[in-house]
Amino acid sequence: MRALRVWLARGFVRARRWRNSFRLRLLALGLIAITGTAVALTYTQAIQMREALMVELQARARTDGQLLNAMFAAPLTERDYASVLDSVSESVRAGSFAALLLCDNRGMPIAASGPLSDCTGPSVPLQGLSLHQADGTVLQLFEATLSFGGQRLGHARFAFSLAAIDHIRRELMTRVVVISSLAIAAFMVAFAIAQRQVTRPLGQLVQAAEAIGQGDYSVRPKVSSRNTELTILASALSRMATDIEERVTELALARDAATASDRAKSLFLANMSHEVRTPLAGVLGMLDLARPGTTDPIVRKYIETAEHSARHLLTIVNDILDFAQLEKGRLAVVSAPFSVQSLVESTIPLVAATAEERGNRVEVRIADDLPGEILGDEGRLRQVLLNLLSNAVKFTFHGTVSVEARTVDAGRRLLLSVADTGIGMKPEMQERIFESFVQADESISRRYGGAGLGLPICRQLLTLMGGSISVQSNPGRGSRFTVNLPCRSVVETLPAAVGPVPGDAPGSLRLLVADDAPTMRALLQALLTRDGHECDLVDDGREAVAAAQAKDYDAVLMDVQMPRLDGLEATRLIRGVEGPRSRVPIVFVTASAMAGDEERFMAAGGDGYVSKPIAAGSLRSVLARAVERRRAA
């Protein structure tokens, strides 16, 4: 029984292979071609034969019509109807006609023989009319006029049987079928010979190709055939396997090199983010601390110029990091409620001073039907708006910069426009302005500065948010950039928020600050002391762990990248001890700005993070949230 099952299984496998094999397809194609050709020939020959016989029959009908007129004209004139009837019957009996009917001018029958009796039937064309009989036979009916001495006596209707034509056609089809059968038999013999010469070697080539396709590049097909083309094909397949094996090896090495390069690039960007942002944070922080205590207007001007230059450098660094992350697809957007009006009104002051210096007037128009809050990424939209406003102010002198926010498409789309009366752009530059590293021309780069990354980043950010950006501009008459975004009202999509939102840090706190940069420690101490907090300073992760275990703190401000022990590992060690000191709120103060950093910080046990350069308001808000969260727990 088992042997029978094995035999059936093997037979099933062979049947499947045979069904899908090239041999079966070639056989089927040949049979279809031969059968189709035979059918086409049969049909064509039958049609041509029938047409030829019908032409011959029509010619005979014209001749017989003349004979009938000569035969019956005189007897009909003399009203010798008896002889007319005898002649009609004799003509049908002799086989000259299958049926014959003589009619007078009134359409009344004079004499008839055979299955014809109606003189008033349908008119008969010159080529005749087919009449199908009850016994299955077909008659071809013709009509001839009877006249004598120029006087019309009536007409004759006569019919011929098409049985002879059908008999000839059947004989022709029989011959074609016999010839087609012989052709199929000859093809089967030729196919059997070709199978040995062609299809079997092709099967060997197919097996070799399948092995190569599955990754076995050591296969080299061997074809024992006299067919020169198959031998050439086998040699070509062997060379292809060798080439593929070499290229796969090269690609694997290139992939490993690219992966290592990508890791090195990511590490470089992370280090650059830290190494550039940390001193920039110190510069901006110290300038911010120095401004309120400066009364000399010249010194204040120096401080403002230095701060402007530092923020400009920070913008370039942020653009480069954002561009790198967008290229890798690592930059994500969030969706949270925010007010468009508040966003616009809070962004305008960031460019107001520069606009005033260049003699520009800034106008804001907010539509009355704009929703109070919508869902979106406020931070990224602010980045887009600030970039557009900065460009508008930069390229405009003694003109107007306007911002307009409104909705279209029944409130489903938000349009945020920034227009200026500045230098404008040519049409060809409007098509390229959103490409990376593109400036309007070299003089623009020299005169106005910029890396050419702002607008490409804006377009990619808006694409991530499901929106788009377009530009309309005329040289010397200004430009208008329009942001088009989905507008989902918070009232329609989200329930009302529950619970209070913490503001400033509650009361005076005892804080531990861990940072390896002396400038940052001094800056953080100054900012926190100004808010009424007490600070202990350490410059290493190990010292931070020891201090957090030895003393009670209300919160810890932890730098991420520090020598000997970094902030993440220090946080894990603090969380790993027993007792209430392990639950101290920890806020990371970091120059890291790469995708995934926030998730790493929270996974290490952090309660929040502040990115360098540090804004006093952000530090105050994040610290308050971290303390409130731990106290509520």
Automatic annotation (TrEMBL):
Name of one Pfam family that matches: HAMP
Subcellular localization is given as: Membrane
- Keywords, in A-Z order: Kinase, Phosphoprotein, Transferase
Q: Pinpoint the Histidine kinase domain residues.
A: 271-489
Record-listed 4-aspartylphosphate modification sites = 559
Q: Which domain of life is it from?
A: Bacteria
Question: What protein am I looking at?
Answer: histidine kinase
Q: What species is given as this protein's source?
A: Reyranella aquatilis
Tell me the organism's taxonomic lineage.
Bacteria, Pseudomonadati, Pseudomonadota, Alphaproteobacteria, Hyphomicrobiales
